[in-house]
Specification:
Strand content: 25-35%
Number of helices: 15
Oligomer: single chain
Length: 825
């Protein structure tokens, strides 16, 4: 065994032995986090407990461990835990303690980002809206009301993890904690009070004496002893603000989130690996993938506004918990190499050499052992360089790692693991959608249309202040008395509404006059509906619907929500325009929807009756639909296809699986043809797909939400749609492709299914990509297809030695030989 590998194995054994038994002091110097007296290479990944279920956590964490992670990071979500002031929820998906214990049981460390502001594309950035409604409050600044509440919640979390002995200083998994989050991005807007506030945050954190380091991400002036850290796609150029602080990357964005109307973003495995390798090459010793598993924004947790229910984030573990290849496997191999040279990275001397042609060599050497990184930032041309008397070819935009200082063991641009293409398999438990029998009932909106309400005021009120975020839905209702002698009266009249980028359903005298939803990214939107008024009393009923509250930006908590006004009646007579402002009228407010209040989605509700089974209406707004179904067989993740519906919410057995909006189509242009070029800096507009299609049609139904026998699906349809197309599927690998280089081992896996056939195989210089491989100019003298069929068909997993020993000689000359395989699951 190589000395580096022996050191790593011994250190892992020692760490695990002590980790599960004894308390430890976690400290740091300018080089690394120090655990058990040893500097460590830490490879972390974000998994947010509320975006999955407790039943999923062990599998997710185990897959992260198998992928080479030794640390799991999560935010703490204030509004999930304290939805009502001083009323706490740590149950179900919100069971933070259980999540941390699951990490500990797996033998992994944890980074706890308390915040309590999280951003995270989470509703209101993780702040409870009742906080906004406290008298005299200003958030994220020097304000006693806010600081008292923030300290109360932070103390609650510290007390909980301390009582459960979850800090490393108590023998638990938590090795790092974070206070505040990305405040440096917005601090300038808060002036001097912002600096006073961040100093207070640091002092408060230190006062807890938790025995592990505290970090502040994106905080270049982080007060000591806070460690400032980097977030972004690339952090190799980041330098901490103190020489005694190690170089930490708290968020390596492995992809990007998706908003309604946005196409699917994709960041290649090659580029993520390049960024990681460059970070460790440049002295980094802790990086965290954001996200390693993104998960699902269940219920009303998605923020934005306009963030989708899916939070897949193009992560190594997909939204449903499946391994996403090649990203998971390509990074796993990188982690193995990095861990094998841990001692050199954290204790070795560092020597950098510019080899020309945009190639840089970095040598880490200690006790006669050295490890080398060769990195190229050239975005177009591969480079051939000579180093220590040997010649190396470094592909453009890549990093080669030579653990022994001589032999390339890994290159970020050379993927030697399979690419998995998922398939949505039909529900074998029953034929669908034909077998789904629907019942329905209308949502009662008559009360709102007639002017009935919960409260009133002679002004327009921000939706957050009225609802305290108890519902997406708020009715704004007013009366207008006019007659034909009024100066504004004309045959050309309209209702003009200034809203805040949300969805509006408008009614006049009980009749629907229009619907409007602003595009994502628009903070205010003016909409105008043609109207015809009655002579006398007129009732205007406007339903404002939020799609998640703002979660980012300076003073984001004060950004308006709902019908902010003015709301005006506009009359036109020839070239003359007369405006009547209704903003100061008496407005009545009605929160929520009748069916939601009566829990039509719950079988336990005594009011959940009177569903109709005949004359099923379609394309009818504000309609409830219900059906029963059998859970799909097996253990694969379950999804429901909601294409054909408009917009609304879905519940399975009473669990809210989130907002759906399949009618919101993405732009028709801008998609990238495969393969996506990994070379050059990434942005979320670089490699996109799903043009001109529903933003999201598949919605995750965790297995733990299902039961034996009949299950219930309930839909609240706002805009109008057809439930007849709804069907349940399972998601797993349908095609497994490999395109591995010579002298590597390629593993093919269909995960839960056996490999049923080999569609293509060639050893030589095959061309194309998964799904469109073809033979190149040279090929082995043995039949690669029959060799792989014999090794793989009928098995869930098989391993192939990619070499001439397996496939025979070729006439490829100096061409780098590869094996391309397409396996059918």
């Amino acid at each position: 065994m190589a000395p580096g590998k022996f050191y790593f194995s011994f250190l892992c054994f020692l760490s695990l032995l002590l980790f599960l038994t004894d308390a430890v002091n976690v400290s740091h110097d300018g080089r690394a986090i120090i655990i058990y007296g040893q500097r460590r290479i830490l490879i972390s990944g974000s998994i947010h407990y509320p975006r999955s279920t407790p039943e999923m956590w062990p599998d997710l964490i185990q897959k992260a461990k198998e992928g080479g992670l030794n640390t799991i990071e999560t935010y703490v979500f204030w509004n999930a835990h304290e939805p009502v002031r001083r009323q706490y929820d740590f149950s179900g998906n919100n069971d933070l303690i259980r999540f941390l214990k699951t990490i500990h049981e797996a033998g992994l460390y944890s980074i706890l980002r308390i915040g309590p502001y999280v951003c995270a594309e989470w509703n209101y950035g993780g702040f409870p809206v009742w906080l906004h409604n406290l008298p005299g409050i200003e958030m994220r600044t020097t304000n006693n009301v806010f600081m008292n509440e923030m300290q109360n919640f932070t103390t609650l979390i510290i007390n909980k993890i301390t009582e459960e002995k979850l800090l490393a200083s108590q023998g638990g998994p938590i090795i790092i904690a974070q206070i505040e989050n990305e405040y440096g991005n917005v601090m300038g807007a808060y002036g001097d009070a912002g600096k006073v506030y961040i100093d207070w945050c640091a002092s408060m954190a230190e006062s807890y004496n938790i025995g592990v380091p505290w970090v502040m991400c994106q905080q270049s002036d982080a007060p000591q002893p806070m460690i400032n850290t980097c977030n972004g796609y690339y952090c190799d150029q980041f330098t901490p603000n103190n020489p005694n602080s190690p170089k930490i990357w708290t968020e390596n964005w492995v992809g990007w989130y998706k908003s309604w109307g946005d196409r699917d973003p994709h960041r290649t495995a090659e580029d993520v690996a390049f960024a990681v390798a460059r970070f460790y090459q440049s002295g980094g010793t802790l990086q965290n993938y954001y996200m390693y598993h993104g998960g699902t924004n269940f219920g009303r947790t998605a923020g934005g506004p306009y963030i989708t229910t899916s939070y897949g984030y193009d992560a190594p573990l997909d939204e449903f918990g499946n391994i996403a290849q090649p990203k998971w496997g390509h990074l796993k191999k990188l982690h193995e190499v990095l861990k094998s040279i841990e001692k050199n990275l954290v204790y070795g001397s560092v020597n950098e050499t510019d080899l020309g042609n945009s190639v840089e060599a970095t040598v880490y050497a200690t006790n006669g052992s050295s490890s080398v990184f060769l990195s190229s930032i050239n975005t177009t041309s591969d480079a051939t360089v000579t180093f220590n008397g040997k010649q190396y070819t470094v592909p453009a935009w890549s990093v080669s790692i030579l653990p022994d200082g001589q032999t390339e063991e890994y290159n970020t641009a050379k993927i030697n693991v399979q690419t998995s293409l998922n398939e949505h398999w039909p529900n074998e438990a029953e034929k669908q959608p034909e077998s789904l029998k629907w019942v329905w009932r209308p949502e009662n909106i008559d009360d709102a249309l007639k002017g009935k309400s919960h409260s009133s005021a002679n002004k327009l009120i921000d939706q957050k202040e009225v609802t305290s975020d108890a519902s997406d839905y708020l009715w704004y209702i007013t009366s207008l008395h006019l007659d034909e002698h009024d100066p504004i009266w004309s045959d050309d009249m309209s209702l003009r509404i200034n809203a805040s980028g949300q969805v509006i359903y408008a009614y006049l005298n009980g009749q629907h006059i229009g619907t409007r939803g602003a595009k994502h990214g628009i903070s205010s939107d003016e909409v105008e509906f043609k109207i015809k008024l009655n002579n006398g009393k007129n009732v205007i009923s406007l339903l404002s619907v939020t799609t998640g509250l703002q979660n980012f930006g300076s003073f984001f908590d004060t950004w308006p929500t709902g019908l902010v006004g003015p709301i005006e009646v506009v009359g036109r007579k020839g070239e003359q325009t007369i405006i009547k402002d209704l903003s100061s009228h008496k407005w009545h407010y009605k929160i929520g929807l009748d069916g939601w209040d009566k829990k039509f989605f719950s079988e336990e509700s005594s009011l959940n009756t009177k569903w109709a089974s005949d004359q099923l209406p379609t394309n009818r707004s504000f309609t409830w639909y219900k059906t029963t179904f059998k859970a799909p067989l097996g253990k694969d993740p379950v999804v429901v296809d909601l294409e054909g519906l408009g917009k609304g919410f879905a519940w399975v057995n009473g669990y809210n699986i989130g907002r759906y909006w399949p009618t919101y189509l993405t732009a028709e242009d801008g998609c990238t043809n495969d393969p996506c070029d990994y070379r050059g800096e990434y942005s979320n507009a670089k490699c996109i797909s799903n043009c001109g299609k529903p933003t999201q049609k598949w919605y995750h139904v965790p297995r733990s939400f299902l039961k034996d026998g009949d299950n219930t699906l309930v839909l609240l349809e706002e805009m109008g749609g057809n439930p007849s197309y709804v069907n349940f599927r399972t998601v797993s690998v349908g095609t497994a492709c490999g395109n591995a280089y010579e002298n590597h081992t390629l593993e093919l896996s269909c995960q839960s299914r056996p490999i049923s056939a080999i569609k293509f195989a060639s050893f030589g210089d095959p061309q194309g990509t998964c799904g469109s491989f073809n033979k190149g100019t040279c090929e082995s003298n043995k039949d690669a297809l029959s060799i792989i069929e014999k090794a793989c068909v009928g098995k869930q997993t098989c391993s192939i030695d990619v070499s001439e020993n397996t496939f025979g000689s070729t006439n490829c000359g100096d061409i780098t030989k590869r094996l391309a395989v397409e396996a059918v699951c």
